[in-house]
Amino acid sequence: MKSLSEIETIAKRASKAAGYSWGVSEETGKSIRLLELFSLPGIKHLNEYFNEKNKHKFENLNLISENNYSSNNPYCPITLGISFLDQINVLENLKKIKFKNVAYPIIFISFISRSSEIIGKKIYVKIDEKKILLNLNVNISSEFIDQKFPKMGNAIEVNLLENDDNFTENEWNNLYKLSEDTFVEESDSLKEGAAGAGLTDND
Amino acid sequence: MKVKLRDPNKIMKLSRLGSFHQSKLSFLRSFLNEFKDWEYKRDLFNLNENGFGEAVYSFKKNKRVYSLVCFANEIKDEERSDRVIATKWDAAFTLHDGVPTKKDIERLKNEVPKQEVGRLSYKELTLSRANKSLRIYNHVVENLSKGQQPDLNLLSKVGYLYRTTAVYGSGKFGLADRFRIKNREEINGPFRLEMMLVYLVRQFTFDQVNHVAYHRNPKTAIKLDNNICKNLGIGNSTGLGMAPFIVNHPTLLNNWILSREKALKKIREIKDVESKDSNLFIDCVKKSLKNITSWNTDSEYQQKKISSLLKDVEKFLNFINKDFNFEIEYPFNNIYQWLEDNCCEECIEYIVSIMMEPYNDIINPLIKEMSSDEEKYFNIPTQRKVEELRSIIETKYPNILDINFEEKENNKNFWFISKNKEEPRLADRFEEHGSELEQPLAIARDIKKLYDKLLVSKKNLTIAKFLISNSELRHVVRRAFIVEKFPYSEIQDNTIGKDLMPIDMLRLKLSFFGALKFDPRSDKWLRICMFQGAPLPNELKSYDEQWVYKTNI
Predict the structure, then answer these.
(1) How many independent structural domains does chain A possess?
(2) Residues B236-290: pLDDT tens digits?
(3) pLDDT for A195 beyond 80
(4) Quick check: B467 and A86 CB within 8 A?
(5) Which residues sit opposite B44 in a β-bridge?
(6) A23 closest CB neighbour out of B176, B177, B474
(7) Predicted confidence (pLDDT) per residue in B112-156, tens digit
(8) What is the pLDDT of residues B150-169, one digit of tens each?
(9) Residue B77 per-residue DSSP state
(10) Considering only CB atoms, which chain B residues are within 8 Å of A85?
(11) How many other C-beta atoms can be found within 10 angstroms of the C-beta atom of residue B498?
(12) Of the N and C termini of chain B, which has fewer Cβ atoms inside 10 Å?
């Protein structure tokens, strides 16, 4: 089994050899390491993308807006990922961002995951109707388990979620009430002595 | 009185970093301190009469066990080489996490001797190999087998029986990634497991010579005297492989140097020094003279440094004996200022190291600050502005900005990775091919390029937008934001200039390891000695902390 350190180093060097700058290659190494840590096919897709890159042209999207459509060639997932990462503090205000025609979207996803940690918000992504939740770069849950990640994301929708609870107020209150059963009802003497401060604590 | 931390623009120059010496902060000393109450055991010693076979040594505490698995191999004399191009070694080692099963040992037997071309697993933590110092090894075996101890004069010329030629860790060749073990308290310090490997290898070398000597002549053989063992260390041959490490791990480098600087600052701020502490300090300086006079090297460069070090340490002792009174206020601050005014860099840093000896209460908490969570500082704060980055560079890299990289001599070398051995190398860009594949280690040059670009960019442009058209400078943009928070994270010097001495970079790292007797074999590789004078494993429960200044051979 390859260690994550080996994976990061090789992905970085291969990216440099594929024509990216050292700084961008460092970012790619980190992102591929992350995918492999989450058992997602980072090395496989990076490898396939670099093979494709020799044969076909890909678009570099440097400035991301609300709707991003590449009508000719697919977007390069590395340049797109770096742009997303770099511009996340501005993109955060957009809530929903759409992309069409993105090559090897799993590579792009790794950069979105890192962006989720930077803004401290979960990010919900749909790749051609398949759902992926990026949780502050702590994990990536997706509907792709047992299915291959696509080589092309025809329509990608990125939703930046607000930090809301996953549950209803009612569910919370019920659980809270149950937790109160571990508390002791205080008698007068307990009120006086158990906290140490007595009944007059504002002198 | 408040003393300022020393200026990174002075301390992070290569000539200063290349003058650093071991200290109480050094990793091999903090390793011994951490593992002193662990149970040491030789679990397996299955060598044939010529000393070839397997052995296992372990450290154990509660449920945690670390086991060194050793493989001693027969090789031909002509196959023995310290260079990284070697493919066979006298012995190969791995540190296994836990107790290795028979199956593990069988697996490791196939992989460990192959080193870089073998595959290890997440159950192995470090990997190394070593060659005999044939001259010394044969002499020791020969004498012991005849019932006599070896010639101490000969031993003192080398200082070890074996020297390692590489020690790998942190995920190389399939070894465990650092993140798997980083929460273990006992290894909360850099390179602690590498130090453990080297320390246990040292014991293996003693056991092996005793074993071979016994089998050569069971009737007359004696064991190597414990006091001689103690005064032998483990050698190490180190090349350029180490140099990029300190450039590629800026926050880690910062934490090493910052700990040293904080220690010095706190010691200079001690108003009244107790006589037991000043006595210990002076005693260590005096006894350390032996380390200087027994420091052998053929390198003219190092000989000059040793000779000025010896001269200055003697001058310092003279000053302390005749003109100095430890009863004045802030005596160590006075000493430091005297050193800056009167001594060479080598001597200043030598004495700074020894100043730490009396102060466990200052040093021990700093040891815990010497690791780094590097991932935390990787992301570039792209919402910040060009104006801010420009100001960071002006403040943090003032001397770098003065270098003219248009001049050939300032841009002479390039760092690359050799295809044959995947190791870092340095070459003349105007005479050799390959500079188009240069590694990103010319930080000074690239910072200057970045600064020039920033000067012609709009002040209020965000870094995100700046990077769109300046992707080739991304690696140094990251570094500049790191140095803003970590003042000692950057070498404030030119790493590609004509006058570069790469061994200064190696020596910096090796001093933090705790190496002694730097012996440059060229400007690109050197030999050192580790653990010379250190307690033996069965003495760890109670040992003299200042052992490093008390070697006898």
Answers:
(1) 1
(2) 988 888 889 999 999 999 999 999 999 999 999 999 999 999 999 999 999 999 8
(3) no
(4) yes
(5) B56
(6) B474
(7) 999 989 999 999 999 999 999 998 999 999 999 999 999 999 999
(8) 999 999 989 999 999 889 99
(9) G
(10) 379, 382
(11) 13
(12) N
pLDDT of residue B399: 96
The CA-atom distances, in angstroms, between A56 and each of A59, A73, A103 are: 10, 8, 11
- Residue A22 to residue B475, Cβ atoms within 8 A: yes
Chain position carrying tokens 């010529």 = B50
Convert B231-250 to b/e letters by CB count within 10 Å (16 or more is b): bbbbbbbbbbbbbbebbebb
Interface test with B, best of A1, A4, A5 (most B CBs within 10 A): A5
Torsion of CA B147, B153, B156, B161, to 10 degrees: -30
Which of B270, B257, B509, B250 has its CA nearest to residue B366? Answer: B257
Collect all residues from A whose CB is shorter than 8 A from any CB in B: 1-6, 13, 20-24, 26-27, 30, 62-63, 82-83, 85-90, 114, 118
Handedness of CA A147, A153, A157, A158 (dihedral sign): positive
Q: How far apart are CA A158 and CA B119, in angstroms?
A: 41
- Percentage of chain B surpassing pLDDT 70? 100
Question: Nearest Cα to B356, choosing from B5, B3, B22, B127?
Answer: B22
Give the alpha-carbon dihedral of B468, B470, B471, B473, to 10 degrees: -150
CB B77 within 8 A of CB B135: no
**CB–CB of A23 and B378 under 8 A?**
no
pLDDT band, very low/low/confident/very high, at A136 (cuts 50, 70, 90): very high
**B69: helix, strand or coil:** strand
Which residue segment(s) compose the domain that A139 sits in? Answer: 4-160
pLDDT at A199 (0 to 100): 52
10 Å Cβ neighbour count for B414? 21
Query: A87 and B172: CB-CB below 8 Å?
Result: no
Residue in B525, B500, B524, B529 with CA at minimum distance from that of residue B513: B529
Please tell me which of the candidates B175, B382, B474 has its beta carbon nearest to residue A21.
B474
Asked if B392 and B485 count as a contact pair (C-beta separation under 8 A), the reply is: no
Nearest CB among B177, B465, B472 relative to A4 is that of: B177
B406-410: long-range pairs with CB below 8 Å, 24+: B409/B497, B409/B498, B409/B499, B410/B445, B410/B494, B410/B496, B410/B497, B410/B498
| Chain-chain contact of A2 with B172 (C-beta, under 8 angstroms) | no
- Which of B172, B174, B465 lies at the smallest CB-CB distance from A1? B174
Q: Does A203 reside within a domain?
A: no
**pLDDT classification of B422: cutoffs 50, 70, 90:** confident
Tell me the one-letter amino acid at B249.
Answer: H
| Cα A31 to Cα A27: distance, rounded to the nearest angstrom | 6
Give alpha helix (H) positions in B127-191. Answer: 134-145, 152-158, 178-181
- pTM (2 d.p.): 0.92
Q: What is the ipTM of this complex?
A: 0.86
Which residues does B contribute to its contact with A (CB < 8 Å)? 121-122, 170-179, 375, 378-380, 382-383, 417, 440, 463-465, 467-468, 471-478
Rounded CA-CA distance B13/B495 in Å is 10
**Best CA proximity match to B525, nearest among B510, B535, B537:** B510
- pLDDT at B85 > cutoff 80: no
pLDDT at A101: 96
A202, exposed or middle or buried, with CB in 10 Å at 0-12, 13-18, 19+?
exposed
Instruction: Give the 3-state DSSP-derived string for B355-394, with helices as H, strands as E and coil as C.
Output: HCCCCHHHHHHHHCCCCCCHHHHCCCCCCCEHHHHHHHHH
Residue B519 pLDDT > 60: yes
